[in-house]
Write a structure and sequence with these properties.
Elements (H helix, E strand, L loop, with lengths): L4 E5 L3 H4 L10 H12 L3 E7 L10 H8 L27 E3 L9 H4 L4 E7 L1 H14 L3 E10 L3 H12 L5 E3 L1
Parallel strand pairs: 1-2, 1-4, 2-3, 4-5, 5-6
Helix pairs in contact: 5-6
GO molecular function: hydrolase activity
Pfam family, one: Isochorismatase
Organism: Aeromicrobium choanae
Length: about 170
C-alpha cells in the first residue's frame, strides 16, 4: 500500500466559531494535533458547502428548512477555512455538498487508499466519510485527538461506532 493520505475534514469557520450553531466546543483542541499530522503526511483538506437550492434533493430541502442560517452561497465567509490550518490547503480543497467526502476524495486518492482522518464533526462529516470510504475498500485510521464532535459526548459515541468497523476502520 502506498503512503497514507491525511484528510482534514471541514476545518471551516461554520464548525469552529463559538457563536455558530454548528460550532464545536472541541475545535480549538484539534488544531495542534492536525498540524502535527500534516507535517508527517500528504494532506487533503475538505470543505462542506451547500448545494444551490435548485440542485437539492429529498432530505436536503428539509435540512435547510431546519438550518436556514447555513443556506448561503459556497463562497460565503462562513465556509472559509479557519486561519489556523488554511495553509494546509495550499493546493486547494476537495469540496462536497454532502456530509461524507467519499467519493469526492477518490478522484484524488484513487481507489482503496489508506486514509488518516481528522477534522470536524466526528459525529457527522467524519463518520460519514469513514463509513463510506471503508465500504469502498479504503483502510481508515481515525485520529481521536484530531477530531472534534458537536459535543464531547457525541464525539465519544461516534468514535465508538467507528471502532465497530474494525479492521477497516481503526480509531487511534
Amino acid at each position: 500500500m502506498s503512503e497514507p493520505w491525511l484528510v482534514v475534514i471541514d476545518p471551516q469557520r461554520v464548525f469552529a466559531a463559538p457563536d455558530s450553531p454548528w460550532g464545536s466546543p472541541l475545535f480549538g483542541s484539534i488544531v495542534e494535533p492536525v498540524r502535527e499530522l500534516a507535517a508527517r503526511h500528504r494532506t487533503i483538506v475538505t470543505r462542506w458547502v451547500p448545494a444551490a437550492g435548485d440542485e437539492r434533493v429529498g432530505g436536503w430541502n428539509a435540512y435547510f428548512e431546519a438550518w436556514p442560517f447555513a443556506d448561503r452561497p459556497p463562497e460565503d465567509a462562513l465556509f472559509d477555512l479557519v486561519p489556523e490550518v488554511a495553509d494546509l490547503a495550499a493546493g486547494g480543497t476537495v469540496d462536497a455538498t454532502t456530509f461524507g467526502k467519499w467519493p469526492a476524495l477518490e478522484s484524488v486518492t484513487g481507489p482503496a487508499p489508506e486514509l488518516v482522518l481528522a477534522g470536524v464533526a466526528t459525529d457527522c462529516c467524519v463518520i460519514s466519510t469513514a463509513l463510506a470510504a471503508a465500504d469502498a475498500g479504503a483502510t481508515i485510521r481515525v485520529v481521536a485527538q484530531a477530531c472534534a464532535g458537536s459535543t464531547p459526548e457525541n464525539h465519544a459515541k461516534a468514535l465508538d461506532v467507528m471502532a465497530l468497523y474494525g479492521p477497516q476502520i481503526t480509531v487511534v
